[in-house]
Write a structure and sequence with these properties.
- Chains A, B: It comes from Streptomyces griseoviridis.
- Chains A, B: This is TetR family transcriptional regulator.
- Chains A, B: Residues 36-55 bind DNA.
- Chains A, B: Keywords: DNA-binding, Transcription, Transcription regulation.
- 2 copies of one chain form a homodimer.
- Chain A is 72% helix and 0% strand.
- Chain A contains 10 helices and no strands.
- By secondary structure, chain A is mostly helical.
- In chain A, α1 crosses α2 (37-44) and α4 (58-69) runs parallel beside α7 (119-146).
- The relative contact order of chain A is 0.10.
- The mean pLDDT of chain A is 90.
- Chains A and B meet through α6, α7, α8, α9 and α10 of A and α6, α7, α8, α9 and α10 of B.
Chain lengths: 197, 197
């Protein structure tokens, strides 16, 4: 068993959480370009040196705030009940719930928008936030290949895009509403194809 | 035969083209929020009243400039050789070429990024630029359904997202490079599915 955190450690944790909350709410309200370390510090009620002690840039603060939004480390794996379609549908339904939560939607949208025009930020968002999640789909699809549920020649990194990208795209571009029925349909189309069997 | 354009009409066309070019290059350089009618007018070498005579907002100018980028009205239909996979692969390869053209990429990226955070602009981009192109895929997939090449129960508006959205997503989010091989693979996976037949 680890020792309980000391009082100064607990104070640090409270500051850290206040800074995450300030960073996420601020970027959602005024966008990434106008968000500053000073603004985050003012809203969190800390000195800006407190922020610079832990992070070197606003991108660092924001990326870590997003990592923390999940309340802990990412799950190590997607569910594997042996029913690939059911497992993917469950995960995409949970993603629909997350995308509909304004606590996530507004700041994530601001960060995604900036990643579209700022290539360096885009690369960091992909490497630190997106790729670890996508790897879970790769792992699940590889397990399905071993079980004979996915064709052997399929590249899992491309295959996952058939259901993940349409949902992301509807979310980012407001092209059409999304629902559980929609994500279920994506999984069915991706797994069984469009042409008659 | 229609009469040749009069001299004043030709001058108008030259101004209009200069305004489109100025709007596209400016938004690519400084982003949508900082692009102004005044800035577009200055770069195009026209008075801002010339712009206000034809358009009521910078969004109007930009959306029309993009519509004009295709050099004329959109094609009325996707190719239909009777080979659905080949037709879709040809169209997506052409899309890869367009997305790699900096004349298109930079301003389109700026407009797409703003559409992510500005819901009203996002809706206009979708309705005026995106939806008409997507409708061509809907029409092609419906023709394939009539020919028995796509399962009857498939919703073409969702089906097209299996290959269109992954390409858009890789382009917008720099998640991974794209190539003809990649788009060919998307079409094959979407049409024939991931699970063994």
């Amino acid at each position: 068993m680890s020792a309980p955190p000391s009082a100064p450690r607990r104070r640090s944790e409270r500051s850290r959480r206040a800074i995450y909350d300030a960073a996420l709410s601020l970027v959602g309200e005024i966008g990434y370009p106008r968000t500053t370390i000073e603004g985050i510090a003012a809203r969190a009620g800390v000195g800006k040196q407190t922020i610079y002690r832990w992070w070197s840039s606003k991108a660092d603060v924001l990326l870590e705030a997003f990592l923390d939004l999940g309340d802990g480390p990412a799950p190590p794996a997607l569910p594997d009940t042996g029913d690939l379609a059911a497992d993917l549908k469950a995960v995409l339904r949970a993603t629909v719930d997350t995308l509909r939560d304004p606590r996530f939607d507004t700041p994530a949208r601001a960060l995604a928008a900036e990643g579209v025009v700022d290539a360096e930020l885009g690369r960091r968002v992909v490497a630190q936030l997106l790729q670890p999640s996508l790897q879970l789909y790769v792992d699940r699809l590889r397990a399905a290949q071993r079980a004979g549920d996915v064709r052997p020649g399929i590249d899992p990194r491309i295959a996952l895009e058939l259901f993940v990208s349409p949902l992301a795209q509807r979310w980012l571009q407001h092209t059409a509403p999304f629902s559980y029925e929609y994500t279920d349909t994506l999984v069915d189309y991706a797994l069984y194809g469009l042409v008659p069997r």
